[in-house]
Amino acid sequence: MKVLRLxxxxxxxxxxxxxxxxxxxxxxxxxxxxxxxxATVTVDGRVRSxxxxxxxxxxxxxxxxxxxxxxxxxxxxxxxxxxPDGRFHFADLLxxxxxxxxSATAHEAGFLMDVKLTASEAPRQLDVVLAPPxxxxxxxxxxxSGKPLAGVWLLLGRYSDFLGDMLYVQxxxxxAYEVALPVGGYGAAVHAEGFMxxxxxxxxxxxxxxxxxxxxxLALPETTPPSPxxxxxxxxxxxxxxxxxxxHGFADLQPLKPWLTEARIVALGEATHGTREFFQLKHRMxxxxxxxxxxxxxxxEASFGEALALNEYVLTGKGDPAxxxxxxxxxxxxxxEVLALIRWMRAYNADPRHARKLKFYGVDMQATAAxxxxxxxxxxxxxxxxxxxxxxxxxxxxxxxQGPALRKVETGQVLAGLVADIExxxxxxxxxxxxxxxxxxxxxxARVLGQFAETVxxxxxxxxxxxxxxxxxxxWILEHEGPEARMVLWAHNGHVAATGRDAVTPMxxxxxxxxxxxxxxxxxxxxxxxxxxxxxxSEPNEPRRGLTAHTLPPAEIGWLDGTLAQAQVSAFALDLRxxxxxxxxxxxxxxxxxxxxxxxVYSKAIQPRSIRAASAYDGLLFVDHTHAAVSTPTGRxxxxxxxxxxxx
Length: 648
Fold this sequence. Notes:
The protein is an alpha/beta fold. Helices cover 29% and strands 25% of the residues. The strands form six sheets. Strands 17, 18, 19, 20, 21, 22, 23, 24, 26 and 28 form a ten-stranded mixed sheet that branches. Helix 9 (384-394) packs antiparallel against helix 10. It is globular, with a radius of gyration of 27 Å. Residues 1-31, 33-37 and 638-648 have low confidence and may be disordered.
């Protein structure tokens, strides 16, 4: 499977990277080829139309079908345009397995899979016949100012089990591109010199003759060191933190109160999914906001239904918090730091001095088991006949393992139909059958199942479904808990950000549109140190190490993180709403800068992220030196291939 290749190709949050910025641009030369080896192979061929005429100007690419080949960092093994006779010629090729792809105007793209080249064989003849176009993908690539970007390569990786079906299409003088594609799902990436890489997923549907996908390229971030004015403003404006750990009082946090007095949601991001100090600081912020400002709702980037077992624990003490945490099925949160937060919430609620109790919620929708069980249990009580109708069809969605079968479009369509029936039945129930609160909760479970179905059905056509769902669930929780409810919201920086990038609308942007200044977003940043993430190889023959710690040196001074480190304070808070209206400091935090932002995976090859800090965040929480989060026994993941041996 090439899931991770396409994950990186589309530049998802899980693949945000670091290190010296590398923005590779495929060469526009007529042909690129690997360095000659002792025994090489030659490939000749011709591209013809369905009417047997030569196809001139077709882009033919020979694509390595190897896991260690990264299309973001290297061109294909060979690539050229056909001449008037439709012919192409590749020499000095290394033996191995390849895919041959062909794109040409007015013809459907061709994918020739499983091309095996062996040493010293006679020149291989590969003729390709292109079918007439049926489904067309077209669009443009432009800069933020609207300038067309000519000669830019668009990479289209087809979703399949084969690693070599990567298609190449080039923009014309007006920045436009067009290609006819077979029906299916694709990961698209654009590399333009002087601009940040872009990517998204898309679907070519049989019932849609034309799909339009435009790309807006963002200029590479500024990397010059900050001016003395910027560093001076940071030093003068920051609030130093005496500790990142809870239980150290609130004297140092008092200056944050004016920032947060009007907020209904305080969103806490994170620059990694595996930093001990970030998790501890979020715990401390929850302690402060609950104790000093009356916040009562804690919500995390985890599935809504599964999180309610932990809500039961923090409210009543029933259940095992460690099992409840493992039951979220998010290894990212299955750590000693998050477990300590949950146990603190229980202790807070057990204290009779705290009349208003804390609640634990999830805003995500990536699991179906708990919500399916809640729906079935509800109807078993209020409508047994309807329950009997649901029990069989919903059985697959009760499986907590969430196997690949549940991610198929057909399965999503089945679930969407079930949800429609459930929601219709809920509207018909007499009020006396159940309390309004209980019925509202089961309706939310049904909605979460509907969100899951929507993401499965639309997984190839809309990259915004998950963030839109999380924002919807966060708003529902606030409404469900009443007008006095105030929420602490835990998620990745990329989800809490109030602004998106290249057609991506994060949860924070949806919440900003709904709540305005009643949403306060803290982005998290760090300078150096360790974090845990799933290792993705960046070198040939590099073994996968599974979930492991990664250590990084100090950030570049011209990056956001490196600039914050110039304050030489181990941990601090910074209010970006108090930036001056003009001048160097405002300009620095409003312009794009590189920043370290990692998700579930890490590789040295993954591109860094660009951020306009003052647009994305209202404030920053910075830690200079970090350590990897400590996984619980159930949160540890073994390196691939070692499970059978029982490796630790």
